[in-house]
Amino acid sequence: MTRPTAPDPLPIPVVDNHCHLDSRRDDADPVPVDQVVREAKAVGVDRLVQIGCDIVSARWTTQVVDEHPAVLGGVAIHPNDAPGHEVAGDLDAVIDEIGTLARHPRIRVVGETGLDYFRTGADGVAAQQHSFRRHIALAKELGLALQIHDRDAHEDVLRILAEEGAPATTVLHCFSGGMEMARECVRRGYYLSFAGTVTFKSAKGLRDALAVTPLEHLLVETDAPYLTPTPHRGQLNAPYLVPLTVRAMAATLNTSVPQLCEALSANSEAVYGPW
Q: Which of 46, 58, 89, 199 is positioned for an S-S bond with 248, CB 3.0–4.6 A?
């Protein structure tokens, strides 16, 4: 799988607040982390948040954040994996281990957790919701940001957050809702993180949601190696492609790229603390 050419650098450095540096896409091996960091920094993406969302990846994440000062981490059990752990009888045990890993000082996120009704059928809903509630409690116990995966589950995600009481810092990773959901999330004080999907020609509803989101509630991400922004959709994604999404966001918001970069950087520091 080909790697796109690098875009023009951003004028002010920003954070890729959600990527999977250890994930293998199709037949492509992960790019070495030192190379990822170097390439991203060259275009104005000087800080990364690596997300480990199974036990193996979460353990790896606690190692890589110690080796690379530009990288902070998040750990969780992905909602699509929760039903399998429930069947195996170890769901609570693996979430307990996530709780132990999340105490590492450079792990600043519990996530990605949440609900995914696209890949998991009705028989997996109870396990996903139980896992989500446990991760919410863990984020509040540790005082960490919560990153939420929400696919085709908007109403239940918002309902469970209200029932459990959302952590003080809550991020809707790869936001996929519409204008009304965006307004409701802002009303609740959540952050909305936009990925390369906001650049897709078919994503007018997502751009409409972005347009009603104040700058102080915005974050940007790649979800690399997935969701590569236009014009490279279908190729390998990586943090060095964040400038494409930032510039598309600025155009939708009718704001300058430097102003948006300043907001994205400040919001990231507010959510995750200093690198």
A: 199
In the chain the domains, ranked by start, together with CATH numbers, are 18-272 (3.20.20.140)
Residues 6+ apart with CB under 8 A from 188: 161, 166, 170
HSE-up of 74 (CA within 13 Å, CB side)?
Answer: 34
Helix axes 179-188, 154-164, angle to 10 degrees: 10
The reported pLDDT for the residue numbered 33 is 97
Question: How much is the pLDDT for 94?
Answer: 98
Q: How many Å apart are CA 111 and CA 13, to the nearest integer?
A: 24
Indicate whether 90 pLDDT > 80.
yes
CB 195 within 8 A of CB 51: no
Q: Which two tokens stand for residue 212?
A: 């009603």
- Say which amino acid occupies 65: V
pTM score above 0.85: yes
Give pLDDT, residue 35.
97
